[in-house]
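Worked example 2:
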Amino acid sequence: MTRKATFSVLMVALASAFVVYSQLDFPTLASAAPAAAVDTVAAAGKPAMPDFSALVEREGAAVVNITVRRSLPPAEDRSSPKRQGPGPNFGPFPFGQPFPNQPRGTPQAALGSGFIIKPDGYILTNAHVVSGNGDVTVKLTDKREFKAKVIGADPRTDVALLKIDAIGLPTVHVGDPSKVKVGQWVAAIGSPFGFENSISAGIVSAKGRALPDETYVPFIQTDTAVNPGNSGGPLFDLDGNVIGINSQIYSRTGGYMGLAFAIPIDIAMDVAGQLQQRGKVTRGRIGVQIQELSADLAKSFGLPEPKGALVSSVEKDGPADKAGFKTGDVIVEFDGKPVTDSRELPLIVAGVKPGHDAAAKIWRGGKEQTLSVTVGELQPEKVALGDDEQSGTGKLGLAVQDLTEAQRQQLEVSGGVVVGGVDGPAARAGLRQGDVVIAVNGEQIGSAKQFKTLLDKAPDGKPVALLIQRGDMRMYVPVTAG
């Protein structure tokens, strides 16, 4: 076949492909987005598609770049932005981005994003972006840089509030996550891999998504491309309102694979308000361990449908115990809010002010009853700081806390400590927040205090063998102390 004939065949194929493409049924978005926020682009005979340029122009100035510099001992260079670790690397995790190729012995610098919520310098970001002691620098789109003060951070929701010394700053518009619909367009602005003020777009994949070890956040799941450095940045709807904070991704590689999770902005704003007023977050508790109610369990309890939270244990002398709760009760409503899924109950209880008398509707013995419980206060997590309280993570770079009795039963372990923070050598070895350390150099761990004592005995420069449990898998991880 001649070159001219080949060219003609290709042109015919391209023309045919164009006809097929033009007949695809794309959703029309013109009615969903005001022209002031997101424009739509439409050609003759084609459905409208969103144009996010107006959103960037209007909201982009309120998105900031965050750099955190922490001093660390000499270590191997970080030559890759991907998360490294032993075994399969598949799961949800935060994605603050360390600078690659840092020379040995230099301070570690991590990148993240944030956004301005008040014109006098209050900024929201993720708690993991600013975790550990370090110098926090905020850079605006007009190239001005400010040293930021961490007003407070809440690891349970991964929300942190920063303050810079500035006035008259542009702010974002806060939206209503309850109005978000699965399938609607959204956009993220942040600093992936340090590329400031980058925008990516996608759709909402799911709402109210629960993740392992994340009790208090019903995440918004999207397929918006977010990567290391996007952490703490805003998720916008088509009207230019912030509906969430980009917090985690689900990945085998540490990079974007189509699953991203954002903290609903109403939860984040509530946390920010408490941090500004009191420097901490107060949550309610009643002292029960719950589990999912399957269809078979619902039938065994005589429930018409599997809705509610099944009580698997009651803390002795806790608020629920005093109120008369028993193992086998199914909580179907709490403080006037229906409990359709077990994952909803912790969030509902946490939102109740401690000391408040709440009515709980339960299913017991084939009928519904109502109990009155005085809600207690959820105490802050007790974290062992290791030998270096200045860094908060000790010479291995690990902050740990005692396992609760409920956690021990769930994990089927007699002892151990859960990792609440990772830095330095431990991070380079691949340990993650939520890992459970079972033993140190072959010696079983019973408490965070014992863990610290064993680390104190470990000589600097020699590896420490940590036996950890991650999900259903156990593995040994060597970490070099100091």
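The CA atoms of residues 90 and 132 lie 25 Å apart. The two ends are 70 Å apart (CA to CA).
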